[in-house]
Amino acid sequence: MSTVAPQDPAAARGIARRTQSEIYRAGISGTKPAVPIDSDALEAAARRALSAEAFAYIAGGAGAERTVAANRAAFGRRQVWPRPLRDVSVRDLSIEFLGRRRPTPFLLAPLGVMEMAHDDADLAVARAAASLGVPYTLSNQASFPMEEVASAAPSGARLFQLYWSASDELNASLLRRAEASGCEAIVVTLDTHLLGWRTRDLDLAYLPFTRGMGIAQYTSDPVFQQLVRERVRASATSTDAAPDAPAVRITPKAIAAGVKIARKGSALTGAGLRESLRSPLPRAAVETFLDVFSTPALTWDHLAKAREWTGLPIILKGIVHADDAARAIDEGVDGVWVSNHGGRQIDQSVPTLDALPGVVERVQGRIPVVFDSGIRGGADAFIALALGATAAAIGRPYAYGLGIAGEVGVREVVRNMLAELDITLGLSGHTAIADVGLDALREV
Q: How far apart are CA 121 and CA 133, in angstroms?
């Protein structure tokens, strides 16, 4: 590993040359990169490394996955237009974001249930991101509580993603914890108030949350813990059956799922596996989570509550229409995040790269515009930045790296994308991200 200083704007300068030198020098002794560098090969290697359920959950999209394909196809309609004979010997990848100079224009998007990819999950991702000075958006559906992630990478920059829960008390508690954990902003995800029709997961009849996975932010939260205790008490005193809750057949898989839920329930029971297996709390935690996870009643009027719960900047994630971007500014938010959830929510949805220019035009630089969905390499990020994005967020690729090689895999994936961005910047005739604009592209 190289010794890149986190949060240093100069750290990313020359990363292309450094990365190529590291790889080629290591190759002299027969050492190859820990993860494939080509994006298709990276995904294929992750498919081999992960369980069928984990790969389906991470790679899959909604419906026939036409939005996933459209996100990628949108990049194919833009080409980088090189301008040679310019001095590009010194290049600067840094940007201004949320009042701080960042060494790169990358963020890591929030990805939940990373324990499906690697046991170290969010801890490994946070350490890798911090080593490169890339802010990491902690998922509301994390496998480790935000406090543990902060302890694992204390020098790292962090944002916190909020799925707006049906419980305002829980929302307020999560935001208080995020602020206390050193998060710099709250990213309110708007497009998952209903779970998308994810065909790969449905074919496998597999949702990780029903196994107690990806709910660590909840089980570690005092408000959620109280909700669980109240549910258990109500269940113990109720004589009513639950007609909408079908019985679970006792099979080896059901038993294994029960053991996993019990292990995850230690935060609630404070006991070992044997005691947790006997306790109703772990199963009640899963049921409580499924009840409060999100609310389809969320509207613009609700957003004002977030200002009461935290003083952190608020970014709205899931904006794909210019009118909504304008409304966000009117509502006083601090940033918008152009995203269609990587194609995981609506089939045949508008590709985010096509939505980006309209949002940028409407925002007029008044607030930052983060972009995700479809980025697979540094050249993709260059295109998004040229179209006006303030920052580009990486999603699935770092999860693939995590599944293949843990923390090292995440770091190499992000490093490789940074290196390709640096090369694309220089070969296109630019020396700074701030200089890249529409004249750097040609539409086809």
A: 19
Mean pLDDT of the chain: 91
Longest dimension (CA), the chain: 80
Give the Å distances, CA to CA, from 230 to 168, 245, 265, 278: 16, 19, 16, 18
| Backbone dihedral angles phi then psi of residue 338, each to the nearest 5 degrees | -80, 115
pLDDT single digits (tens) 227-277? 999 999 888 876 554 445 555 554 555 545 555 565 665 566 555 544 554
Structure tokens at 359: 């949002």
CA–CA distances in Å: residue 300 to residues 93, 195, 297, 368, 441: 35, 20, 10, 19, 35
Domains of the chain, first to last: 35-194+295-443 (3.20.20.70), 206-292 (no CATH)
Q: What is the pLDDT of residues 376-401, one digit of tens each?
A: 999 999 999 999 999 999 999 999 99
Strands 158-163 and 106-108 come out as: unpaired
Q: Which residues are catalytic?
A: 341
